[in-house]
Design brief:
about 140 residues; alpha+beta; Beta-Lactamase; disordered N terminus; single chain; Roadblock/LAMTOR2_dom; Roadblock/LC7 domain-containing protein
C-alpha cells in the first residue's frame, strides 16, 4: 500500500460519469500498485494496475526508439474485442487508466483524461519507494 494514499477515488468520479461507456477508472503507481479506483472492485483494479505497469514499461521502451523524443510514455490506447483501454501519464511515477465499452467517444475520453490530469496532476503522484518506507 502506498503510504501517502488518501481516498483519491472521488477525483475519478467526474471522469467516469462524464464519459458514457466508461467502465473502470484507476490510478496506479509506476510499479503497478493501485492508488485509487472508481467504478470497479479492488481485485479488478489491482489486476488492471499490475497489467498497466507492464504496458507502461513496454510503451517506454518504444518511446526510447524516437530520436527526438524524451523517452517518456504519454498515452497508450488499445482496442480489444468489446472495448478500449486508455492509459496516460498522470504525474511523477503515476498513471491514469480507463477501460471503456465499445461505442465510447475516443476524443471525449482522451480529453477528459487530459483535463483531469491537468486539474489534479499533483495529487496523482507516487513517490519512489525505498527500503525505509513502510509498505
Amino acid at each position: 500500500m502506498i503510504q501517502h494514499r488518501t481516498n483519491m477515488d472521488w477525483m475519478l468520479r467526474d471522469l467516469a460519469e462524464s464519459v458514457p461507456c466508461a467502465r473502470h477508472v484507476i490510478v496506479l503507481s509506476a510499479d503497478g500498485l493501485r492508488m485509487a479506483q472508481y467504478g470497479t472492485d479492488p481485485d479488478t483494479a489491482d489486476r488492471l494496475a499490475a497489467a498497466c505497469a507492464g504496458l507502461q514499461s513496454l510503451a517506454t521502451a518504444v518511446a526510447h526508439e524516437f530520436p527526438h523524443g524524451d523517452g517518456r510514455m504519454r498515452m497508450v490506447v488499445i482496442e480489444v474485442s468489446g472495448g478500449f483501454f486508455y492509459m496516460m501519464a498522470a504525474g511523477s511515477r503515476a498513471y491514469l487508466a480507463v477501460l471503456a465499452d465499445e461505442g465510447v467517444d475516443a476524443g471525449l475520453v482522451s480529453m477528459q483524461m487530459r483535463d483531469l490530469v491537468a486539474r489534479i496532476g499533483e495529487h496523482l503522484t507516487a513517490p519512489p519507494r525505498s527500503g525505509e518506507q513502510v509498505a
